[in-house]
Amino acid sequence: MVSVLELPFLCIIGTLVAAFCMPVLARWKRNFCAPLATIVTGAVFITTIIIAYHVMHGEPIRYAVSGWAPPWGIEIVVESLSSMMLMLLSGISFLILIFSFPAIKHEMEHKVIGWYYTAFLLTLAGMMGLVISNDIFNFYVFIEVTGLGACSLVAAKGTRQATEAALKYLLLATIGSGFILFGIGFLYMITGHLNLTFIAQELALVKDSYPFLIWTSLSFFTVGFGVKAALFPLHLWLPDAHSSAASPSSAVLSSLVVKVYIIAFLKILLIAFGLEIFHETFIRHLILVLSIIAMLAGSFFAFVQIELKRRLAYSTVAQVGYIFLGIGLGTPWGLAAGMLHIVVHAFMKTCLFLTAGAFYYQTGIKKVNQFAGMGYKMPITMGAFTIAAFSMVGIPLFGGFISKYGLALGSLEADLPLIILVIIISGLLNATYYFPIIGQAYFSQDGEEHSHGHSSHAEDNRNNAHAEHETPGKFQIDQVPLSMLVPIVILALGIIYLGISPGIVLDFINKTVVALL
Question: How many CB atoms lie within 10 A of CB 453?
Fold first, then answer.
């Protein structure tokens, strides 16, 4: 009988085994890869629900791998934040995989499908390992697994643009990993430990003896995780990588991958170093300044983009700024709102990238000035896009409003009321690049034919030909497969739910904030 303490470890091992089975399965029955990956991820999602229920109604899970107790052995710790992230990672990945059934065949060559799902499952395993590991050496291992998987997801599309973006991503991610490794080295030099709990105990005793080394280590972690999480101006890899990848890959990269690095940074910051050291080293002020610049600059860059996925990619830069703003505020409300925005943004950005994939699947359009009449051609998909866009702007009754409201309360709590003005301005900037798309879709009926570009797939050509005979302004049902529509609708409903009743998510977050502070 498997103990609940072993379930987090089994989630990672099961995902890794499935990942390594994919290339073999692709040589035999390539069409079985997508269903198997989806079944495995669905089983992991169900398991994470069991884990979360146990954690919220009992004690955190602490599991020593192979029976080696810390600080010598590898320790897995699943508390409220980790259990919430496990559900988010596996649940969103499950929806993306369902969407990918027809989308991947449409956007990339058939021969790479097995390797694509290998990269997807490796990325998922790396992300889950990152949020449950309690020692910084294994942080580094899972950072590399996640990074290599993510680069492979970008390169899998096979185009020249995707290959260049993957190479840029790999080079900059390697630099970020180097900074993190130096940070780990300095921290080990000070404390003699790799386990976060033992590091915290030792730092409390020796922090006055090594002020410069502590500041240096924290600085290296900030830069390293800043590159990984695309904190402005360390974001240079993100727009190309996220916009060049296939739509399911863009969704997982933007909504999940950059977030797990923020969670890892948050755990090192608050568990190992603690808020007192965070405030004393003035890293908090640096993060605060960079997050404010990110919120504004990311929105400005997004506004001038003509390609839809590139606009969404730059929007992620601004949204990462919101999350780091919560960390930089360093108050209970600020931290809670930053964590909530991680969850809300995962729903919003996954929904936006999947709808972008659905638009391309049916009509072939990629540019934001080609949406005339789209509200009538694809009412379900456009409706979901509208819900996600309203949430990104921060309109009440949508999830984005709750997290931005929490950041405003955190600003007051930190005695920085002017930051509320920045949050409002950033929200207005979000409106300037989302509302014109929505306005075109529902209030414009341009009958001109759009150039859809060339596709190597017969299915793509059939869809484009079908789209050219549609009449803008005539209401009809979306012509995309049900497996693409269902995840989009679920995500849109999730955004509304988080905007109306975020209580369950806030329970996880409040328990985390109380434990950390």
Answer: 12
Domain definitions of the chain by residue range = 282-517
- In whole angstroms, give the CA distance from residue 107 to residue 311: 19
- Tokens at residue 20, please? 């390594």
| 3-state SS track over 14-81 | HHHHHHHHHHHHHHHCHHHHHHHHHHHHHHHHHHHHHHHHHHHCCCCEEEEHHHCCCCCCCEEEECHH
pLDDT digits (tens, 9 = 90+) for 290-315: 999 999 988 888 888 888 888 888 88
Angle, CA of 147, 148 and 151, to the nearest 5°: 85
Query: What is the Cα Rg of the chain in Å?
Result: 22
Q: Categorise residue 363: left if φ over 0, alpha if ψ from -120 to 50, beta otherwise.
A: alpha
Cβ proximity of 143 and 264 under 8 Å: yes
The DSSP output letter for 368 is: T
Confidence at residue 476, expressed as pLDDT on a 0 to 100 scale: 55
| CA 420/CA 48 separation, integer angstroms | 36
Burial classification of residue 484, based on how many CB atoms lie within 10 Å of its CB (0-12 exposed, 13-18 middle, 19 or more buried): buried
The CA-atom distances, in angstroms, between 212 and each of 186, 216, 219, 418, 452 are: 10, 6, 10, 32, 57
Q: Is the backbone of residue 192 left (phi > 0), alpha (psi -120 to 50) or beta?
A: left
pTM: 0.86
Provide the 8-state DSSP code for 256.
Answer: I
Residue type for 270, please? L
Q: Are 32 and 25 in contact (CB under 8 A)?
A: yes
- H-helix segments, 245-378: 247-252, 258-267, 274-280, 283-303, 308-329, 332-363, 374-377
Mean pLDDT score across all residues of the chain? 83
Per-residue pLDDT reduced to its tens digit, 172-205: 989 999 999 999 988 888 888 888 888 888 887 8
